[in-house]
Amino acid sequence: MAAADSPALVVAGVSARALAESAQQGGWRVIALDLFGDRDTRRASQRWLPIGEPATLAIDPLRLRVALAALDGEPGMTGWVAGGGFEGVPALLDAGGPRLPLCGMDGASVAALRDARRFFATLDRLGLAHPTVAFDAPGDPHGWLAKRAGGCGGWHIREAGDAGPVHPDTYYQRIQPGEPMSALFLADGRRATLIALNRLLVQRQGSHPHVFGGAIGPIADAALQARIAHVLDALVPPFGLRGLASLDFIEARGQPWLLEINPRPSASMVLHPDAWPEGLLRAHVQAMQGRLPAAPAQHRPGVRGSRIVFAPRGCRMDLVLAERLAGSTHCHDLPVGAAHFVRGEPVCSVSAEAADAHAVEQLLARRAARIASELVS
Asked: Is residue 62 packed enough to be buried (19+ CB in 10 Å), middle (13-18) or exposed (0-12)?
């Protein structure tokens, strides 16, 4: 743990566990704001404050503003870092006070990047491949997805023929066959350093066909790494990308088809804590100040993975199971005690490490299935 007189860093998001652990690794005293307050987050933090209800998977704007205002007057604050959950409400990124600056891209910059018309027009101008997009519903919805530019975690994606609501930021994208992947990178506004390629685990949850369920990496593919490095060199300047971020894409026969950029630390950072000695969040804050690491990212041998365990039905985790799982080295994001879950709600996550991605995926599937089978209806 950091010394009592160390500078403090506030981390916030739907789930702040990865941010809190990386901030602790970087030597900060950590104050975490999220929906879950799980065991790992509290263990890595000096303090935890709730900013929403777990079942909603959405940050409560009022609770966030109140929490940030309360922390603004405290001494020793470096600032605050935003994780996932701000995509649809970028104005909240400007909610910190004068003594609690945002260590990340501001609301206007994120809103511009999440403007689908501008984003895909920029890709076209730069000659970068992406699946076909449209801003009016296709006459024949077969083979198309409806997405929201302000969505996150895949919960906003549905088949175009689904009779769900059409929001002002809805756009349509033709389904591109291939492997869902992401590139975790660090940028300083002018150039980028690729940290790792990761394979994304995507699964159906009810009427949501492409929900983010985890990631596996690093994926070693020199040719694809070179292509993605070229893409990042092209994209960083026009969007002024800074700090940790991730580029989502579909890989098909070596060709990356670009989907979106998440301009903030992503969940895949848990796979790469050894990239630099002081961790990824320390590198993120330094990149926001215009300094990229002098050395390339390092990775220990093998491949790592993380997978979310979703409640298969309305169920609960009793205290006995919670305590037993807490003693496991591969269970994370566990509730602090007995807990109830609605169908599709995240219960916890599991991790695995092996020599190759296939072995990691098999381990993750077995561990997730076992936990799901032990939940009580």
From this structure: exposed
Amino acid at 203: Q
The token pair at 34 is 């999220």
pLDDT digits (tens, 9 = 90+) for 191-238: 999 999 999 999 998 888 899 999 999 999 999 999 999 999 999 999
State the pLDDT at residue 306.
98
Q: Does residue 164 lie in a domain region?
A: no
Q: Are residues 338 and 231 in the same domain?
A: no
Residue among 220, 351, 222, 355 at smallest CA distance from 301: 355
pLDDT category, 163, cuts 50, 70, 90?
Answer: low
Residue of 367, 308, 244 whose CA lies nearest to 57: 308
Quote the CA–CA distance of 293 and 190 in Å, as a whole number: 14
* Whether 131 and 280 share a structural domain: yes
Whether 22 and 91 share a structural domain: yes
| Residue 225 lies in domain | 112-136+173-288
* 193 bridge partner residues: 186
Tell how many helices (H) and how many strands (E) occur in the chain: 9, 18
Nearest to 266 by CA among 19, 55, 12, 10: 19
How many domains in the chain? 3
- Determine the 3-state secondary structure of 253 from DSSP: coil
Q: What is the percent of the chain with per-residue pLDDT over 70, rounded to a whole number?
A: 99
Q: Let me know whether 258 and 117 are in one domain.
A: yes
**What are the residues facing 34 on neighbouring strands?**
50
Looking up residue 16, the CATH number of its domain turns out to be 3.40.50.20
Could you tell me the pTM of the whole model?
A: 0.95
Do residues 235 and 257 share a domain? yes
**Contact (Cβ atoms closer than 8 angstroms) between residue 103 and residue 80:** yes
Distance between CA atoms of residues 196 and 95, nearest Å? 31
**Position 143 in a domain:** no
* Co-location of 262 and 197 in the same domain: yes
Q: Is residue 148 part of a domain?
A: no
